[in-house]
Amino acid sequence: MKNIRNFCIIAHIDHGKSTLADRLIQKTLNVPDREFRNQMLDTMDLERERGITIKSQTVCLPYKTASGEEMIFNLIDTPGHVDFSYEVSRSLASCEGALLLVDASQGVEAQTVANLYMAMEHDLTIIPVINKIDLPAADIDMCNEQIESELGLDPLDALHTSAKTGVGIEEALAAIAERIPAPTGDPNAPLQALIFDSLYDSYRGVIVYVRVFNGKLKVGDRIRLMSTDACYKIEELGVMQLKQVPRQELSAGEVGYIITGMKTISEARVGDTVTLETGGCSEMLAGFKEVKPVVFSSIYPLSTDDFPELADSMERLKLNDASLVYTRDSSSVLGQGFRCGFLGLLHLEITEERLEREYDQSIILTAPSVEYKVYLRSGECVEVDNPIKYPDPSNIDYAEEPYIRASFMLPKEFVGAVINLCISRRGTQAGMNFIDSRRVELVFELPLSEILFDFYDRLKTVSKGYASFDYDFLEYRRTKLVKLSILVNHEQVDALSVLVHEDRAVERARIICKRLSETIARHQFKIPIQGAIGGNIIARETVNPVRKDVLAKCYGGDITRKRKLLEKQKAGKKRMMQIGEVEIPQKAFLAVLKNDEDED
Q1: Tens of pLDDT, residues 490-507
Q2: pTM exceeds 0.85 for this model
Q3: Which of 14, 50, 190, 340 has CB atoms 3.0–4.6 Å from 326's, for a disulfide?
């Protein structure tokens, strides 16, 4: 065990985490150039295109020190986005140390601080690394200053690397060997192993990644998952070195994979404890929790005939993504579909893209919403994530909505613009710290529903791309909630209904009605588009009809001839409107995703 080092790399988005992992892999595993590709641990096309890690990976790296001692480095990769922070926390719980990356040109960002605190909660040894020192805009003195003032770490301990060119990689490996402590644990104690990730293989079933804290795992052992009490027999275990390397056993302190023939990935819950069926441990490892979705949206097939294919695709996607939660849903306009729960907006985007690209599905997404707690006069509490389930307003006592604590890092010249943006989204300022002479940290408490639509895009616009943003769930707070219904040709369209704050309802209704009037094609009759709260119409737009010029043949004569033709046309339009159906195009459903700032 004294020659094992378990570590991870944590950083803000786009600070070079995957590139540094590539260099460490190249240096230790001697990967031939013809087999090497950038972002080796990112296996999905989406990860490569977006430059983010969605699914965490692990790799076992052999390393020989300057004195000739052979060591094993277990690099446990972590997702880089706030939506997957629970997975990050379980990966950190499997390590003894972390490389904390700071971009030499950008300095300390919001997620750098959030990840540092998370690593410190798990009592990890932190090695600060200033990356991208080869950039012309690199400012190492600024980074040293921020590492000391903002992170509270010693800048003299910081390593200077360029993951792109390979500078400082040898020093980083030596620092991992010297500074990160060896794992502790008792190989003879009852088995305790932490599941920090899992993936689905269509030939072998679920592959579970574990960190063994105490005891030993052997091929043929019968194991028990402590959160569900499910038991399985180990068919194969081993370590990952870009490909699976089977072994006969994994001992305390080691990181590896186990294959048991498990059929669904939701059985192998991240954070669960693995022990032996007989003679196992009595206590679970700390930190396990059920992952709860925070953003909800409905997915419908573009054509109602494609529902069976969508259902099959959702089942296969669920095999690969344990955090996706969905139930059957139906709409009078869009037909059969699914109501889905996501960890955040990025998770929603990734799911949508994977359905379209990997499973070739054409889908419509309804406006995302959060979960509100609605308290009825009877004392009952109803959790509402779908406008269709909103109770009768006469039975409601009050409602609560989720709030987040958002932390922003930005240059001081953009402070006013970001404060205005947060206040326009019903935010209240909770703190403001000057990191140095140029950068400021702003802390705001915001309703989660207000950042769902285009908040991140607006933040990047008002700060010219310089502001970074990280958030944590805070609590549920009392709010004035109303259901905004959209009526097209006097018929309510459930898929366009949204739950909004009372003060924003009129403004939001006007925007949605205007956008719908621009996207719905003109018909032979007049189409009213209305926004309503209960029986009160609060906004209206009209799509004018396509009209035939019935007066074209009247080139003279009495006015009564013209009036007679117009009255005849008017009566025909009225009759048509009573039986006419309005076609709502797909892009009309995206109109509710636009927010009011887009009108500026």
Answers
A1: 888 877 888 888 888 898
A2: no
A3: 340
